[in-house]
Write a structure and sequence with these properties.
The complex is a heterodimer of chains A (155) and B (240). Chain A is built from four helices and seven strands, in the order ααββαβαββββ.
């Protein structure tokens, strides 16, 4: 019998097309939460790490991965949760950071706050709240163009 | 290995997460409402990790959900501090500040625990708790060194909660790390922050005890659990 097992590279490229359910402008691969893709015999094993331990998107993400890979003909799929090492925004891809900014979400910055307003690029920004509409974001505003915006928390 | 140490970590996160959830839709400002709900969410997520591990190690067919929803008050192993009622926003934030400051040190110690499941949960939780501590510290300072009214309320919150602090540093064989060793680092964070907040720590070392060993919970826990557990106890087969 000829095996038609897709390559791991193909699987990665399929996952790169699966959008994050809460921030659909970036993919699950951009977000850095897919930690490993490997074949264990006839079963494809995908290792996923949660962003925040209570993030309600986690179960939706698993569902999206499952649906996408089954759509590509994967029949035996196992999703593995891995919490160590813990997810960090360092794993967000450069492409993902660029897409976030273009979408109006300021990307994480190790200096501790947004580099500039994602709309007008002014560096005159101030924090409204340490938390925002999802566990991964905080609320900031630009004192130049006066627009509020989301900042992707750096952890 | 006794799973009581794991249950203690999980119950602290669960009970405080439930308490903070009570603010949802009631906080003094929209941003505070969102912040408290987000912190509650982190804590409930951490609960699933701790109680999930406890259930797995226990091996008697429990799950994180059955531990959370079918135990009675006397089987809970959380600190008395976290079951104290929300009262006003000042009491809620002071409780959060004292707990976050302890939680940060406890998790920091557990990141190097020999049991890799425990150290993994600690590393994950510590990132979230670092953020919680930053916020509750800033808020206690802003309200303590704020208006006359906010200062009075924060001092009264500190006086009220002070006797619940000592239990965090008590130690027995079930604890995952030596809790007595956390006090120095805790004080090094808490005392300067209280000073900046213009608040005065009460001159007393009296400590209420009985939460983490389950011998004497306050009357508040049972009321909280009655609300939290009502649905799964009334409809044991309910699923989402």
């Amino acid at each position: 019998m000829v095996t038609t097992r897709p390559s791991v590279q193909d699987v990665w490229s399929w996952l790169a097309d699966v959008p994050d359910p809460e921030i659909p402008v970036i993919s699950l691969v951009d977000l850095g939460i897919i930690r490993n893709v490997t074949w264990q015999g006839d079963t494809l094993e995908v290792t996923v790490t949660p962003t925040y331990s209570g993030c309600p998107a986690t179960s939706v993400i698993n569902f999206e991965i499952d649906a996408a890979l089954r759509g590509h003909g994967i029949e035996n799929l196992s999703l593995k949760r891995q919490i160590a090492p813990p997810w960090t925004t360092d794993w967000l891809s450069d492409a993902g950071k660029t897409k976030l900014e273009a979408y109006g979400i300021s990307p994480p910055n190790p200096a501790g706050g947004p580099q500039h307003c994602p709309h007008c690029k002014s560096s005159a920004v101030e924090k409204i709240s340490q938390f925002g509409s999802t566990p991964c974001k905080a609320q900031w505003r630009c004192t130049e163009c006066l627009e509020p915006f989301d900042y992707f928390k750096c952890i | 290995m006794s799973v009581i140490g794991l249950i203690r970590m999980g119950d602290n996160a669960l009970v405080l997460g439930q308490r903070l959830s009570e603010w949802c839709g009631h906080a003094p400002a929209l941003e505070e409402d969102i912040a408290l709900a987000n912190i509650a969410l982190d804590l409930i997520g951490q609960t699933q990790l701790w109680l999930g591990l406890a259930a797995m190690r226990d091996g008697s067919g429990q799950t994180a959900d059955t531990l959370a929803y079918t135990r009675d008050a006397w089987d809970f192993r959380n600190l008395l501090l976290v079951e104290q009622p929300n009262r006003d926003f000042g009491v809620t934030m002071m409780r959060q500040f004292l707990f976050d400051s302890w939680h940060f040190e406890a998790l920091s110690a557990l990141t190097t625990h020999a049991d890799t499941d425990i150290s993994a949960i600690a590393q994950k939780s510590l990132k979230e708790v670092t953020y919680h501590r930053e916020r509750s510290t800033d808020t206690v300072i802003a309200l303590g060194d704020g208006t006359d009214e906010s200062r009075v309320r924060m001092q009264s919150a500190l006086d009220r909660l002070w006797p619940y602090m000592g239990e965090m540093f008590t130690q027995d064989a079930d604890d995952l790390t030596d809790m007595t060793l956390l006090r120095t680092a805790f004080d090094a964070h808490v005392m300067p922050a209280l000073d900046t907040a213009t608040l005065t720590p009460p001159d007393s070392t009296f400590a209420h005890q009985g939460g983490k060993n389950g011998t004497r919970h306050s009357e508040h826990l049972g009321h909280m659990l009655a609300v939290m557990q009502s649905l799964p106890r009334s409809y044991p087969d309910a699923t989402w």
